[in-house]
Write a sequence for this structure.
């Protein structure tokens, strides 16, 4: 009889399932974490109301219709060329320095016409621009 103790292997612990669980927890926390979205530009947005503001007497009213006609303070311009618009606006701003401009454009006017007008206003350094709108009676167009 052999009474010598048998040589047992060293005890080992398999940690592969433990590593899998740790990685799953890491992925879970990475996905579920919300990050604070900060902008690099600090902007305070203006407030607006639906109150009717009285029109200033020195404001320039510019109208655009569907046919492409431009009206400056109710006077129809001969054409919609840059020089014609610039001359009409120069004659209106000689009374005051950089007056506000109110643009009244038809709802279906071409977008390019409005951009062209805004470009002309920018060349004349007229930056106080308001767009005339109307209040809808119901939610239909």
């Amino acid at each position: 009889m052999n009474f010598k103790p048998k040589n047992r292997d060293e005890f080992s612990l398999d940690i592969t399932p433990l590593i899998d669980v740790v990685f799953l927890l890491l992925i879970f926390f990475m996905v579920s974490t919300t990050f604070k979205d900060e902008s690099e530009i600090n902007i305070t947005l203006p407030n607006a109301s639906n109150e009717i503001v009285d029109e200033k007497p020195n404001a320039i009213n510019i109208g655009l219709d569907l046919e492409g006609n431009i009206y400056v303070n109710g006077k129809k311009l001969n054409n919609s060329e840059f020089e014609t618009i610039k001359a009409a606006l120069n004659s209106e701003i000689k009374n005051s320095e950089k007056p506000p401009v109110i643009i009244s454009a038809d709802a279906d006017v071409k977008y390019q016409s409005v951009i062209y007008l805004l470009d002309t206003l920018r060349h004349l350094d007229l930056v106080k621009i308001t767009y005339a709108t109307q209040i809808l009676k119901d939610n239909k167009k």
About this structure: The longest strand covers residues 60-64. Helices lie at 16-32, 82-93, 111-123. The chain has a mean pLDDT of 77.
